[in-house]
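QA checklist item 7 of 12: single-chain prediction sanity check.
[x] sequence parsed
[x] length recorded as 202
[x] structure emitted
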Amino acid sequence: TIALVALIFAACEKYEDFTNDYEYSNVYFAYQNPVRTVLTDDLSFKVGVVMGGKRTNNVDEHVTFELAPELLSDPDIIGDNNFTMLPSNYYTISSANDITIERGEIVGFVTVDLNRELFLSDSLCLEKNYALPFLIKETTLDSILVGSEELSIPRKDYSIVVVKYQHKTHGVYYHRGNRTQYKADGSTVDKVVSYIPAGHSI
């Protein structure tokens, strides 16, 4: 009986690891290299940070960020990619340097609004050329998840947000049928182009 009681208490203590707050809280970007594809209907998107280490959030937590162009020349971060800083007149951010994780939430966001006229008139926006490099600098939480090579913890204090444009009708279209060409007198030209894939019928 004593052994059984001891086992129950040990099991409860282990379970508490998942029900109680961790010994410290932290903040991080969930994704380090996301690609944001914007459409003509909505030239805006959100960039967010995540709170970790607490099961519930009872206060507003604040995260100070900056745009860090030097990240775009760091091979440990971008690898073989070649990104250009999105021109400052192409966008506005809803907050200059603060993201609030509101009470009751575990994520906080800022909104990036693109300048329709400037962004859409630039052909470079059609591919993965432009980026916004976000970097967390300070927080009211206990720590920033800067990573540790020794503990094999990845760095998550930054996010390279690559921005590209794609028209809402863009895509690969599947066509079936025949295209027949006619002469002026209404007779059919000998050559008929078929759009029927092998093994299919109209």
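[x] summary fact logged: The chain has a mean pLDDT of 85.
[ ] second reviewer sign-off
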